[in-house]
Specification:
The protein is α/β, with parallel strands linked by helices and 383 residues long. It is built from 16 helices and five strands. The longest helix has 28 residues. The protein is globular and about 60 Å long. It starts with a helix and ends in a 13-residue tail after the last helix.
């Protein structure tokens, strides 16, 4: 694994350079933590040259794929204007293919029907009315309720994923003027969960979804991948980054877990259906703004499809998905991932335990995920 280890060292040096200069971290979760001192690259050009040289040496395979993702992201950070389809293929591992209009209408109809079952009509207030059915939690109660849900559903997730990995979770409250409400990072069996008080608001249902998504999805999954890598000489770099081709798996699975754990709950089903459709709409905006659509065209399309979105919501979406190199890659993983898992659940649910067992052992790329569905290949980004 000499090449893998050299690749990891190069990625760590890239990470150290970005952190030292006040940039976003490159590594979001380290599944092979080390006490070795990591010397940052002297500059981004040097980092790009070494990542590119290592990628050429690696040829094909998981090491080359990860190095390609890092080198592509770094070039974008430096100002290179990479067409969206190329950018997503080289980072997330799937192209910028649009979902059909018929498919979006179908998924919107599913969300509207699930809301109607609860007496909620599709319109400007539907998302607020759905949240109003739930109990609003006081800030001081949030951590306790999340812990209760995590404890309740942990045996179910562990049984489904066949994992015995241990993990330690630290929760921090922060205030950042950014899109995210929650962010998990860490190393080995130690995960850190940050709750962004500027954007986070919790109902009891939010706490349930949070426990499944962040705790039993991300934290347990990353600790399980760490445990597997400790016992096996895995060929892929053991460093996880949101601009790499395993993120579609991670965000798709984490969004999907709350639904599969409580599939009989009508409020949970309505939330999942509405979130799924909203992610598909966000993907449409992602494509539009990167293809040169005006901000007003994006606004008109979004309001026409999802009247419950605010102008502020839409402005943030089109800005982040076009101007920020990290989010231009990373945010595509949400719609691509959740749509893949929703289709798997609806059409080939018998494969779900097999996929989850593999996903809690090692990162899987979109192409590896589709290998589970050889009888029905679905292009990424197409419903």
């Amino acid at each position: 694994m000499e090449l893998r280890d050299r690749a990891e060292h190069a990625i760590r040096r890239f990470h150290a350079l970005e952190v030292a200069n006040g940039g976003d971290p490159v590594i979001d979760y380290d599944c092979a933590p080390t006490t070795e001192h990591i010397e940052p690259y002297p500059d981004r050009f040097t980092a790009l040259d070494e990542l590119t040289a290592l990628k050429a040496e690696a040829g094909d395979g998981p090491v080359a794929e990860q190095l390609t993702a890092h080198a592509t992201y770094l070039a974008a950070l430096m100002g290179e204007q990479i067409p969206l389809d190329d950018y997503l293929r080289r980072t997330q591992g799937c192209g910028a293919t649009a979902w059909s209009d018929d498919y979006l209408v179908h998924r919107r109809a599913q969300a509207a029907a699930a809301l109607a079952d609860l007496g909620i009509s599709w319109g400007e207030k539907c998302r607020d009315e759905l949240r109003a059915l739930d109990e609003q939690l006081a800030p001081g109660d949030v951590a306790e309720v999340i812990g209760e849900y995590a404890d309740e559903y942990e045996p179910f997730v562990r049984d489904l994923a066949q994992t015995t990995a241990t993990f330690n979770l630290t929760i921090e409250d922060v205030e950042h003027d950014e899109y995210w409400s929650y962010w998990l990072d860490g190393a080995g069996h130690d995960a850190r969960l940050r709750i962004n008080r500027k954007t986070a608001s919790f109902t009891r249902g939010d706490a349930y979804r949070f426990a499944l998504h962040e705790v039993l999805g991300h934290a347990l999954q990353y600790a399980s991948i760490t445990e597997y890598a400790e016992a096996h000489d895995v060929p892929c770099p053991r460093l996880l980054a949101v601009h790499s081709n395993h993120q579609v798996l991670f965000e798709g699975l984490a969004q999907f877990l709350p639904l599969v754990a409580s599939a009989a709950d009508p409020v949970g089903v309505a939330s999942a259906r509405l979130d799924h459709f909203t992610q598909l709409l966000r993907a449409e905006l992602h494509l539009m703004v990167n293809a040169g659509a005006s901000v007003n065209e994006c606004l008109e399309r979004a309001i026409g499809r999802a009247p419950y979105l605010s102008a502020k919501d839409i402005e943030r979406e089109i800005r982040d998905r076009s101007r920020d190199p990290r989010l231009r890659s990373y945010l595509w993983s949400y719609p691509a991932g959740v749509d893949w898992f929703m289709n798997l659940w609806e059409q080939e649910d018998k494969l779900l335990p097999e996929v989850l067992r593999a996903a809690y052992q090692r990162p899987l790329s979109p192409s590896e995920l589709d290998n589970f569905r050889t009888s029905r290949q679905v292009p990424w980004g197409a419903g």
